[in-house]
Amino acid sequence: MRRFLAILLISLWSASSLFATVVVPLSFEQLVNESQSVVYGRVSGVRAQWTTDRRFIESVVTVEILRGMKGSSRESIVFAIPGGQVGTYLNVIPGAPTLVPGDLAVFFVTAQGARMPVTTGLTQGIYRVRRDAASGEMQVVPPIVETGRIVRGDVKRKPVSLAAFEGTVRAVASR
Hints:
This protein is an alpha+beta fold and 175 residues long. The chain has a single domain, classed as CATH 2.40.50. The chain has 3 helices and 10 strands, in the order H-H-E-E-E-E-E-E-E-E-E-E-H. It is globular and about 55 Å long.
């Protein structure tokens, strides 16, 4: 009985200090409309730093804008993603995107007041771009954000051309 009580108390104590990240799945229309900027770009730098309250580590990502689809007309954009490594301290956030210099993607970015902008919907706001080996065409690969079963070969997960994707973003943004 004492052992059970000790385990129960330790479990309750440790559960009270847990944090969770909950991301609500967004439709494509919501993703476009809730983003201040939608840009196709190349990651030119990633730098990890402590948050101002020194409780977490975030990575500051600099993206060289290759093409603007909504909002920003600057040459580059800077935003933060959760997680990263500062010295010997590593902060891993399950489900958070990881980026490295050279990555190509379409970024959906939202500003939150005085804070640094973030990707809209966490991983939902990053659509990776790759060159198709057969045609040489740049293709956008949608992220997996659906709940429930993931079906291999699902038509909704097929890559689309960058030009078609840009057209869809512009059409949704103009409504």
